[in-house]
Amino acid sequence: MGATKKDTDRHLGRRGLLIGGAAAALGTAALARDELARLWGRLPGPRTPRVEGAVDFRGALWTAASSGNFRWAQRPDDYRIDRVIIHVTQGSYQSAVRVFKDPSHQAAAHYIVRKDGRITQMIRELDVAFHAGNRSYNERSVGIEHEGFVDRPQDLTDAMYAASARLTAGICARYGIPVDRRHVIGHVEVPGTDHTDPGPHWDWKRYMKLVREAKRDADHSKAEL
User: Fold this and answer.
1) Of 97, 107, 110, 201, which one's alpha carbon is 20 to 30 angstroms from that of 123?
2) Domains of the chain by residue range
3) What are the tens digits of pLDDT across the range 19-49?
C-alpha cells in the first residue's frame, strides 16, 4: 500500500513547526535551512475550482481521500508528471478506502483497482498524493493501488490487469509518458522505500504488453475521430 507515517511528504503539522522552531533556536543555520526546505514541501499548493465528483478516468467511481493524505496542486503546471507507480494494497478494497479517508494515515494513492476490474479514484491527478514515500516521486507520479496481497497470485486477476492497463495507458497518453519500465514502475523501485509491492507475482511482461495495446487502441480511436 502507499507509504505509512514515514512518508516524507505530508502536510505541515504541529510537530514540524516545533522541530523547525527548535532548529532555529539552536542557531544551526544549515539544520534550520534543511528543515525549512522539508516543511515547504508539505505546504498545500493552489486549489483551483474543482467539479465535485469529477474523475480523470472515465468510468471510475469517485470517493474522496482525506485532505491529510495528499497536497493540493496544479499538475502538470507546477510539477511535471512522468511516472506511474504500481502498488498492492496488502488488504481489501474496503480497508484501503477506509485508511485513505483517515487523515491520521497520512498516505493515499490516486486510484484503487479492484479484483473485479472496477476502478475508484480518490485523489485528482492534479494533486500530489502521498503514496511513494519519496517527495520527488510523489510530485512527479500518479499512484495506482491494486486490491490484494503480494503473496497471493490469485488476487491479481485478468480483470484487474486489463482495467489497470487501460488506466495506465490513459495516464501515459495524457502526460506524454513513455510506456516502458523506466516510467511505469513498482513501489519497490522508488528510491528510499522499504516497500516490496507489487511483489514477485506481478507479471510485468504481461502488464506492459496490455498497457501498450490499450494505448495503441486509444491512439487509433482518436485518429479515426
Assistant:
1) 201
2) 14-224
3) 344 444 445 555 455 554 445 555 666 677 8
